[in-house]
Each structure stands twice: as structure tokens, then as C-alpha cells.
Amino acid sequence: MSSKGMAMDDTTMSQCVDKIAGVWPHTNNEPVKYLRLFAAWKTPWGGDQKMKDSWQKLVDLCHQHNIKVLLGVDSNQDTHENEKQFQWGLELMQMLGEDHVIGFSVGNEMLNKHLSGQWWREFEQWVYSKVGEMDSKGFSKVPITLVYSYAVYDALLQRNNQFLNNMYHKYGDRWTFSVNPYALWDTSLWPTGPGNCHQNAEIAVGLDYLKTLMTQFRQAVNSYTGKTTAKVWIGETGWSSPAPNALQHFTKYCPEYCSDSTLKQYYQNVLEWDGSLNGGLEPPEYIFYFTNRDASDQGDFQPFGLIKSCAEDHCKLQNNETNEIVV
User: Which of 41, 163, 186, 226 could be a cystine partner for 88, CB 3.0 to 4.6 Å?
Assistant: First the structure.
């Protein structure tokens, strides 16, 4: 558990930061040691007073329990929002202090956002400027990353992503290779009917799949850098119960796929995994699990939370009456 952290959902960050899970559900009160914030704050979440109050609760939690944070911005085409998120992130970093910051991510899964080449060129210059601001505030040793979807795998092998190439050339070992491995979004594992429902669900939530995926990613990073110990982080991985809107098409013939039982198995496997990779390759330094509560991603319901909402305190996997774990 020394490498495990929780990637925070928008629901908890915007509505009940005082209810961040301080311990991992269904463990022997194992403390959460790391948090990943996709953004310190987002404009739709509310005004300055709400933001400041939420930050103070978060900072108090981190200071009292020695929690360290991976901050970031949720970069997109709205450059004004990107700038605001960065400034908020920098302000929160200063409140936390350097000892409570493990890294800063300049975006999340941006290859999936289909941004133009011109946008990327302007974004690159913006990143250089923002890292310079961080450095001037005393955070020059904080690792820099962009948390990619697994689509970056081919870019590593082919060395054809100019932004990534320039970032690594500029920042060297300070640059961290972060990725979000999600079996749930692997279309090759989606059941096509009742006949392969159970088998595909078992493969998807099994530890072998995640371990193999991260072994391949580590091999790609080793080839790209020419090193075997470059920093690799899992920015987020998790499982959904019930199914997100995008997977409703097969829930009628495979309700098991996004059930509480598969959520339980995936969560248990991630927590029990020691991070080891096939062939004894260097393991990920940090592994972030997604997430505390169900949330919405641009209107798409994303029930990846271990808890349903801010109004509830019980884990989805817990029977409210008997306090037993759902099997």
C-alpha cells in the first residue's frame, strides 16, 4: 500500500472535500497516503469563498495525516480555463508546501480530445512558461507529467509525438511517464452476448490483464528513454458499478460486467497488487485508484466511485444493515 493513492472525482472535490476517504475501504484502516487532483478547482464548481473553504479542509487533512498530492490542470481548448486552473493549482501547492507535493500534471488523456497541431504548439510554450512560474515559487524539484490514456503507447514506440519528445528533451528525468490503464474501456473485452459475458468480465477485472498492460508500457518507456528506471506512474485505474452511460448497450445481456461483484474484485486486486511487473521490470512508483464517489464527465454519468454520493457514508460494497462486504 506504500505506493497507492486515490484519484479524486469532481463530486467529492466540488461538493464534500471534508468527506475524502482517509482510509481505504475494507482494509484494516489502511491510510490513504496520496491524492491525485485533476484540478485544484474548476470554474463551474463555485466562487472564491467556496474554493478557499474547500482548500483549507484539504490542506488540513494533508498536513494532519501526512498526505502527499499530485496536482494538475484538466487542460482543454479553453485556454482561459487552463490558465485559471494552473494559477489555482500553484496557489494550492503553496498552501500545501513542497513536502506535500509529489508532482504536477499539465493535462489528462489529452490525446482523446483531438486537439489541433497549432493548439499543441501553443500549449507547449504555455507549459514551459507555467513550469517556470512553479520553479520561481520554490517547486523546481517537483516532477512534471501529462497523464495520458493508453493511446500514448504507440507514440512511445514510434517516437512520433512531438509534444512528448520536446517535454522529455526539455525536462529529462524530471519528466514522468504517466498513464491510465483501463480494462473497462478495452473494446476487445466487451461482451458480445451472454456466451462470453462471464469469461470477459473475469479477464477484465483480473490482475493479469493490468499487470501485462503495465509491463508493456514499462517496456515502451524503457525503449523510448534508453533507461530502465525512468519514473512511471499510474494516473488512475478503476471500475464502474453500475455501468457508465457509454456501456449501457450490453448491460441487458451481461449485467455481471459492471456489477458490485466485479467492482469488488477489481478494487481488491489493485489494492493487493504489489506493483511488480513481468520479467522483474521496474514497477510503477505510484498507483492511483479512481475514485471516492460517482461523478459526471461532461454530462456522462461515471459511477466509478466506491461511495455513491456526498449524502452517503457507506461503501457500495457494504451492506448498511449488517456492515458486511457484498460478495
Answer: 41
Structural contact between residues 17 and 57, judged by C-beta atoms closer than 8 angstroms: yes
96, 64 Cβ separation under 8 angstroms: no
Q: What is the pTM of this model?
A: 0.96
Peptide bond into 291 cis (omega under 30): yes
Per-residue confidence (pLDDT) for residue 314, from 0 to 100: 87
Q: What is the DSSP letter of 178?
A: E
Q: Show the cell assigned to 293.
A: 464517489
How high is the pLDDT of residue 321?
Answer: 55
Round to whole Å and give the CA distance between 293 and 313. Answer: 10
Cα 102 to the center of its chain, rounded Å? 14
Which three cell numbers mark 42? Answer: 474548476
Cα separation, 272 vs 292, in Å, equals 18
d(CA 165, CA 285): 22
- pLDDT value, residue 327: 41
Q: Which residues pair with 177 in a beta bridge?
A: 146, 232
CB-CB contact of 327 with 261 (8 Å): yes
Q: H or E segment at 295?
A: strand 295-297
Measure the CA–CA gap between 92 and 56, rounded to whole angstroms. 9
Burial label, 273 (beta-carbon count in 10 A; 0-12, 13-18, 19+): middle
Distance of alpha carbon 292 from the chain centroid: 12
pLDDT at 323: 59
Given this model, what pLDDT does residue 34 score?
98
Grid coordinates representing 97 are 508546501
User: β-strands 68-72, 101-108: how paired?
Assistant: parallel
Structural domains in the chain, CATH included, are: 4-302 (3.20.20)
CA nearest to 178, candidates 268, 83, 93, 102: 102
Query: Which segments in the chain show pLDDT lower than 70?
Result: 319-327
Classify 110 as helix, strand or coil.
helix
